[in-house]
Amino acid sequence: MMNPPETVYTDSHRACCDGATDIRAGAALGHPRVWLEIDEKGYVECGYCDRRFVLKGGPADQQAA
C-alpha cells in the first residue's frame, strides 16, 4: 500500500519544490528545483514527487473548514 503524497500548506501562490526540503543532505537526494504556481483550485502538485502545495484559506484548504 502506498502512502499518500505529502501536503504542504503555504501562504504564497508560488511554491518551490526540490523533493528534498526535509532531507538533511538536501537536493542531492531529491529532484531538480521547480517553481510551481497555485491556481484557482487552491493547490498545485509537483510533477516530480507528487508533493501537494495547498494555499492556506484557499478552496482546497481542508484545515480552514
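The record above closes out task 2.4. Task 2.5 opens with a second protein, given below.
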Amino acid sequence: MPRMTVNGRPVEFDLDPDMPLLFALREAANLTGTKNGGGGATCECGACTVLVDGAALRSCRITLAEAEGRFITTIEGLSRDRAHPVQQAMVAEQAIQCGFCTPGIVMAGAGLLTRNPAPSRAEIEEAIPNDCRCGVYPRLVSAIERAGRVTQRQESISAAPAPAIDADDAAQAVPALRVAPSSEEP
C-alpha cells in the first residue's frame, strides 16, 4: 500500500500502486480541488497540478507508486485560510474566471515562487503552461509577479475571502485512505 504525506499528514492508500495520484487524491482522499481536466494522452492542461516535494507536478502523470514516501501538497493544504501570496494575488488581480483551472495555476505559481521569488515574465510563462479557456493569461502573469513581491515583503495584500468549507470537513475518511494518527494538530 503506497504511503506518503499529503498536506502534512501521513497517509496510506489501499489502492492499486499504478493508479494516478490524481484519482487517489480526488476519489479516495476527497481532495477535489485537484481537478481532472480530461488529460487524454497528452495530460497538458495542468488542472491537476500539485506540489510533490515542493515541485509543481501534474498528478495525472504520477502513479501512487511514484509518489511513495514523498510530500504532496494540494490546493487544500497550501493555505488553510487562503492567505498564500499566490491565492491573494490571483483574487486581487482578478485572474480568476470560471475557477476550474485556478487550483492548478495557484500550485504551479507557488512552486515557482518557492524556487524563485522574483521570476521574470518569461520565467512565469514557462513555469505556468496551464490551459485556461477563459484567457486570464495577462492577469495571471501580473498576479504571479505581485505574489513574488508579497513573498519578498515588498507589498502586502489581503484580497481573498475566508474559505466556506474547512479542509478537515472536506477530507472525510473513506475505506481506501488511512490517515495516520497525529500527535500534533496543524
